[in-house]
Amino acid sequence: MNTRIAGKKVLTIILAGGKGSRLAPLTDQVAKPAVPFLGTYRLIDFSLSNVVHSGLQDVWIIEQYLPHSLNTHLAGGRPWDLDRTRGGLEVMPPFSGPQDDDGGFAEGNAHALALHTDLIRASGAEVVLVLSADHIYKLDYAPVIEQHLQTGASVTMVTTDIADPSEATRFSNVKTGAQGKVTEFAYKPDEPLGRTVACEVFVYDADLLLSTLCTLEEEGQLGDYGEHLLPRLVERGDAYTYPLEGYWLDVGTLDAYHQAHRDFLDGIGLELDDPNWPFITSSITRPPTRIRPAGTINESFVCGGADISGTVVRSLIGPGAVVEKGAEVRDSIVQAGAVIRAGAQVSRAIVDRDAEVGEKAVVGGQSVNARLCVVGAGAQVEAGATLSPNLQVPPGARLKAGAEAEVAEELGGES
């Protein structure tokens, strides 16, 4: 079965191969699209759910970094009804061929598309929808594609206006003229063009996309699509925008990831239980949450299987996580299977899956302006130890009381 919108065959490609180093250490052992969100979902669930609710059925997921962690979650596309005999979800791992015996590893997302030009051409697609896998938003892609076809655009970029113009330097900046035609484009500029940024949702004319990628490859100018591909198409004078209404956030940094959880707690995120547009995931069935007599929960999300005997305020407690009696968790994210022992204090922190914070340990700062700190997956903060803001315990490491400087590392990372 082929997806057709306005009589045109549409291929959806989700780019899910980036290392996501700005989300480290959450991405040290898990691909960024497979990072949990709100305890129940994974980041890629939002793009995939939008895809299936938009009526799109031909979906490729281009992988590279830690693909096994993502493939386990994808489950062959079954949760999204994309496990079809013809069409459906297809995973595209790195590959080598006669012309690249050393392996087809991409150096940027435009390069990732270029590696698949022969396969895209063979698919017969007339329109290519390209998505990122780490943004939180709700969007029906069908009207975007219909507008793209009506305008005869080379590329249509979905855009949004961000609240803080200084943050625009993290994204592709866009200026528009009449009827949404792109008049100026800048990729992660030192000085922002304004508040309007691209949401990493692009609709391309397939033939033009393929020919442009081939030209750029011959010129040695692939890299990320914001560097050369999109500027080249904007130069033609037929690139257009489609404004996104409603919530959108790129959660590619630890601060943004933490902020997104706070947004949902404040009720300004997405409506997750809309029966007409549910966000679908693949998850393990958990027993009910247990709140014990000493447990106190205020303005928080608590997932199935969690066991709460302590105090939880404005936080996310993931599936199967434990907060023991006398422990306090504030403004934090505690992922699946993590344990906060009795008397521990966790504030403005991310405690990754299966990590443990020992008795009377202190993780994070009490100030509302304190920088985040992170306890990596499977790591252990021993009883009485202290992890200060802007520091991390790497995955699997052990932080002993009095030995913080020997183990704790500063947070940081590039895109």
Automatic annotation (TrEMBL):
It comes from the Bacteria. SUPFAM superfamilies: Nucleotide-diphospho-sugar transferases (SSF53448), Trimeric LpxA-like enzymes (SSF51161). The keyword Ribonucleoprotein does not apply. Coiled coil: none annotated. Keywords: ATP-binding, Carbohydrate metabolism, Glycogen biosynthesis, Glycogen metabolism, Nucleotide-binding, Nucleotidyltransferase, Transferase. Residues 12-265 form the Nucleotidyl transferase domain. Its EC number is 2.7.7.27. Residues 294-366 form the Glucose-1-phosphate adenylyltransferase/Bifunctional protein GlmU-like C-terminal hexapeptide domain. GO terms for molecular function: ATP binding; glucose-1-phosphate adenylyltransferase activity. One of its GO terms (biological process) is glycogen biosynthetic process. Transmembrane segments: none annotated. This is Glucose-1-phosphate adenylyltransferase. Belongs to the bacterial/plant glucose-1-phosphate adenylyltransferase family.
